[in-house]
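Assemble and predict.
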Amino acid sequence: DGGITQSPKYLFRKEGQNVTLSCEQNLNHDAMYWYRQDPGQGLRLIYYSQIVNDFQKGDIAEGYSVSREKKESFPLTVTSAQKNPTAFYLCASSIGSFALNEQFFGPGTRLTVL
Amino acid sequence: KQEVTQIPAALSVPEGENLVLNCSFTDSAIYNLQWFRQDPGKGLTSLLLIQSSQREQTSGRLNASLDKSSGRSTLYIAASQPGDSATYLCAGLSGSARQLTFGSGTQLTVLP
């Protein structure tokens, strides 16, 4: 089955720790995205990548980092510099550029800072 | 900067009713608009994508329309069922931002 997988489903972090969220897709999509969702709010873009070894900041990139070494994988690291990291994190992918193509989403990772 | 608004935030209807969900946006230079469904604690499921050159898209009991001049999109759900209960989000792609801007969603409850 083709799709997007995210792991873990739930993640708990102590203050001051970095954590990495995994996102893998087997859809052969070029573009991948990371969003953050807070209760009662829409999604906000953290980072996106339209091609391997290239990525761009979204609206709320501060305190986050990403890498895109393989087409299939786009891990997100939440660093200790992120002031309020508790949220639901969603990864998405699309065939090509933003303009023309549907975005498909993974099941999400819920991060809680203790 | 594109802003996307969905009103109401929550809606309850009896089973079998036809209903319309609303989405408004501020930047009429929109490339496309996408409707999603989100079940509690889950990711988003893409429902319909309308390109700027299109006026509507249909999939089963769902029909989405796009009116760029008025800055509005609607999602029509026919013969609603309890299984349609979820949060529905719309997101627009505008040329200036080159990224999707999401509304905060409408939480739909279909009562048996």
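The first strand of chain B starts at residue 4 and ends at 5.
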